[in-house]
Amino acid sequence: MTQPGSRPAGASPGEPGDTGDTGDTGIVVRGVGRTYRDQDGAATVALDGVELSVPPGRFVSVIGPSGCGKSTLLRMVAGLERPDVGEVTVCGTTPQRAAEEKRLGLVPQGPALLPWLSVLGNVALPGKVNRRHNRRPEPDLVALLRRAGLGDALHLRPAQLSGGMQQRVAIVRAFGLQPDVLLMDEPFSALDEFNREAQHEQLLDLWEQQGTTVLFVTHSILEAVRLSDTVVVMAARPGRIVDVVDIDLPRPRTQELIRSPQFHAYELALRERLRDAFEQGVA
Ligand code: ADP
Ligand code: MG
Fold first, then answer.
1. Is residue 126 part of a domain?
2. Total domain count, the chain
3. For ligand 1, is residue 43 a contact (CB within 6 Å)?
4. Domain harbouring 112, CATH code
5. Which of 152, 128, 129 lies closest to 142 in space, CA to CA?
């Protein structure tokens, strides 16, 4: 059995740990730092010297203790916030431009659906905004919703759906724009185990179909191993990357695989690295 591999975070191009070509649809984070100051001037270093490259079509998860800067990192990549130092490139351009061109999608922690629109209305909405940037051919949203098990819910309002179904709608909405890059911040944290399972399948299904580059924040080790090609481990104070682990497991990652010793080995390895990360963050 191969041992779960680890490599230094932020290896530079050409080194063995390099994640490779970032091409047209990848994410590159170079030397990114961000410090917040409260009213008394006390500083929180949310991110320090963060280096990360996500090659096109890769599924990369970020895991780490609460407050280690996961959401800050995602917001930087989404173009919602700018770093104090360093640079972020998405699809070879700035995050702001990638978002404008609808090459970048974001699934927030809650489903954030508009209550007065139907399921179909919610999913169709992003395509109605800034139309000239829509992708051709436009996707069949009804087919995407059917595939996600929402065929009977097309005309229902969000309030008529369970939390799990609402989150499904949010994911279809994000994929409906066929973004090159999809960012997800703990999208399943509010769901029970059973719902999560179904969501994982839906997400992987769409990801494989569309070849999307995914950066996924989670605090679940199982979720990270199940979904990812690579897991990035962060520590707090200062928020930084402390480990990068490639998940060298075949896909699809079936229930049988999830129960296998290889899968458990990755879970254990990550658990240990997270424990180290946690201790490193307790200054
Ligand atoms: P995570 O998502 O890993 O839990 P965050 O990225 O939300 O962590 O936060 C990282 C650190 O930065 C935390 O200490 C948090 O309190 C601080 N922080 C995040 N956003 C702000 C902000 N807008 N103003 C002040 N401090 C912030
Ligand atoms: Mg967060």
1. yes
2. 1
3. no
4. 3.40.50.300
5. 152
Bigger pLDDT: 79 or 128? 79
In-domain check, residue 158: yes
Domain membership flag for residue 117: yes
Q: Tell me if 1 is assigned to some domain.
A: no
CA distance 73 to 86: 12
Mean pLDDT of 177-197: 88
Predicted model pTM: 0.89
Nearest-ligand number for the alpha carbon of 66: 1
* Whether residue 232 has its Cβ less than 6 Å from ligand 1: no
Q: What residue spans of the chain are helical by DSSP H? A: 70-78, 95-100, 119-128, 141-147, 163-176, 193-210, 221-227, 255-258, 261-281
Note the pLDDT tens digit of each residue in 4-13. Answer: 545 544 434 4
pLDDT tens across 19-57, in order? Answer: 444 558 899 999 999 999 999 989 999 999 999 999 999
Q: 65 CB less than 6 Å from ligand 1?
A: no
| Residue 198 DSSP SS3 | helix
Residue carrying structure tokens 């080194």: 15
Q: Return the SS3 of 206.
A: helix
Q: Whole domain around residue 225: which residue ranges?
A: 6-282
Please indicate whether residue 239, judged by its CB atom, sits closer than 6 Å to ligand 1.
yes
Helix orientation angle between 119-128 and 163-176, rounded to the nearest 10 degrees: 30
